[in-house]
Amino acid sequence: MHLQHGKYILILTGVLLAGALMPAFGETREVILIESPEVTLVGEAGAGKLYQVGEHPVLVMEGTPEEMGYQHGKLLAPKIHHIIKEGYTPKALWNRGYSREYVMAQSARMEKFFPEAVKEELRGLVRGLREAGYEQLTYEDVRLGITQAEILHFPPDGPPACSNFACWGKWTTDGRLLHGRNLDWNIQGDAQDDHVILVWRPKGGTPFMMVGWAGGIGSVSGMNSKGITMGEMTLPSPDATFDGLPLLLQMRLTLETAATLEEAVAFMEKCSRTTGWNFILGDGKIPSGRALETDAQYCTVFAPMDEKETAKTGHWGMEDMVRRTNHPVGREQLLRLGIGMGEEFGLTITEDTDIEMLLPLLTGQDSWKRYECLSREIEKQPGKVDIAQALQLLATPPVYNKDTLHSMVFDPKNDTVYVANAGNNPPVTATDRPYTRIDLTPWFN
Q: Which among 435, 434, 379, 409 is positioned nearest to 176, based on CA atoms?
């Protein structure tokens, strides 16, 4: 299964996209910014509040894990019911050949790695749902909100293609860190209907936010009040398991516990991981960032200008920038991938010197082309990257994708994120929709 998984990623990312931002890549796409959205309070439950910020629901939870879960369940009950019973979950899982027995078994395997506080929050969420009149939804149902990503990365589904970059110093207009991120995931599955921006204010802890979906107590894009930013991308790897902390909790717990870049990296190095993921981590305080290439067995950390990001693997390090897409950059990761899957492409990879045989295949992949685009377009703009330019890069083919579920730029220095969510009826990729400025200052203080 693991080899099929990795092979599928390589085939999926082999499709080339047309056009791009600068002359070397193609045409500029229009990006629309909404700088001053209307903010309306639409619901309250205990200390929890539900706002509407422009087109985005923003749920602010506060208190103990159980209290925050209760607020989530009570205030978003209709959306949670929809995503579990009518929307994304049945369309992504039950309607596509996954059996409930198989899915729940893998979900239960991952639950063994949940901290008790996470279980308390899930129980609180169910309590809130029941108080809102949705008694048919179970603990096991809502648990899927944080375990489905791993399950959907194995057949019959296939993984998405995502892009992340963080730049600062010599590239941005004032030196501050900006972190851009596209989540490229099937927008035909209606997940965008239950999109929500989640803000946690844990009792005695660090406030943090994630762009996600109703019922999910973790997600794949986020930032905390200490200036830590985080985004993920699928990484093909032969080392994968369901016996680990699921992706959405790896990210949520990093943001909940880390006050520094070093602490964020250390959490990811030590936690029990599952399948292959790339990460970009940023710290707006320093500013600086790291790229992580991880799977169940390995976690390799890359700094700016890292010697491991070398022309010998078809890549190059950059000052004041880290970026990743959906393939490994590190020589060790490429070697393991080549050994595990090279024969599927007529290549026999057995030792380090054989990696050169992989390069023509690698540089023909869409993933490598997105890596190149992120790099070259930033290189053209020393001292010029601001919010508008960072957003423009996310809408630049081949980084631009017709299946982007959400897109954003984090601005941790200003406790701000600019977010676009995919449209529906008909589906519209996120980068073709307006980016709304979400000021997190009221909830991060």
A: 409
8 Å CB contact between 325 and 278: yes
How far from chain centre, in Å, is Cα 18?
Answer: 24
How distant, in Å, are the alpha carbons of 69, 176, 362 from that of 304?
38, 15, 22
| Whole-Å CA distances, 239 to 5, 90, 156, 235 | 10, 28, 19, 11
**Class of domain 40-151 as given by CATH:** mainly alpha
- Per-chain mean pLDDT for the chain: 91
Q: pLDDT tens-digit profile of 101-146?
A: 999 999 999 999 999 999 999 999 999 999 999 999 999 999 999 9
Confidence band of 28 (pLDDT split at 50, 70, 90): low
Dig out the tokens for 89 from the structure.
Answer: 């979950």
Structure tokens at 359: 């390069």
Listed residue (228, 233, 276) closest to 253, CA to CA: 228
Alpha-carbon distance 141 to 150, whole Å?
16
CB 392 within 8 A of CB 380: no
| Distance linking the first and last C-alpha atoms of the chain | 46
Question: 1: how many CB neighbours lie within 10 A of its CB?
Answer: 8
Please report, for the chain, the start and end positions of each structural domain, with discontinuous segments joined by +: 2-34+159-192+227-444, 40-151
The counts of H helices and E strands in the chain are: 15, 17
Q: What is residue 279's three-state secondary structure?
A: strand
User: Does residue 65 register a pLDDT over 80?
Assistant: yes
Name which CATH class applies to 2-34+159-192+227-444. alpha beta
DSSP single-letter state for residue 30: P
Q: Determine how many CB atoms are found less than 10 A away from the CB of residue 367.
A: 27
H/E element, 435: strand 435-439
Q: What is the pLDDT of residue 347?
A: 74
CA distance 56 to 41: 12
Contact by Cβ (8 Å): 251, 281: no
Reduce the DSSP state of residue 208 to 3 states and report it: strand
The CA-atom distances, in angstroms, between 130 and each of 136, 144, 192, 266, 377 are 8, 18, 24, 38, 50
Angle made by CA atoms 186, 276, 216, in degrees to the nearest 5: 55
Which residues on adjacent β-strands are paired with residue 342? none
pLDDT tens for each residue of 428-443: 999 999 999 999 999 9
Token pair for 335: 């070697």
Asked if omega into 382 is within 30° of 0 (cis), the reply is: no
Closest CA to 242 of 273, 278, 277: 273
Which sign does the torsion angle of CA 238, 164, 156, 92 carry?
positive
